[in-house]
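Trying the structure run again after the queue cleared.
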Amino acid sequence: MTRPFILGLTGSIGMGKSAVAAMFQGLGVPVFDADKAVHELQGPGGALLGPIEEAFPGTTGPQGVDRQKLGAAVFGNDAELRRLEKIVHPAVAAMRAQFLKDMAHEPLVVFDIPLLFEKGGNAGVDAVLVVSAGPEAQRARVLARPGMTEEKFEKILGLQVPDAEKRQRADFVIDTGVSLAETRHAVQRLVHSILDKNS
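Done. Tokens:
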């Protein structure tokens, strides 16, 4: 059975991954967004509300998972975080498999996975694209987010594979420290080269 070429898209916090994912979509390339899948599973009426409530009582309600309460329950606690991941990861993997089935006729799809290297997701893709910008641009973007602090930022960075290592392990790197137009051109070139090679 032929299947699409699977490009894994990843990058550290504040590197412009969402903007690049949107550029792929703008070019007609289907994108599976792991974060969006999690939001759906944990949102109002989401499939994971029951199991999460059972494992972490008081963290869900009519609006879905209370992200702050759940965050407080698992942040900095490896055992609890693993418990949550055991609930969430298989459900996301099932959604991803369904997406791939639905997109079987497409030549190229993108898996947008924030923690691709951290969680070993690179094993399930044909190539990895890392989006990256300089540390100053990254820091400025992240600290501009509502509710973000220097301390939170440092903690998140500590959990992520360093950008330099991601770039080294990537098949492709797109620099988002340039203008949007330049980044868009880089995405277009990449799409064309993958399609040409796999046509």
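Residues 78-102 form the longest helix (25 residues). Worth checking whether this holds up in the mutant runs.
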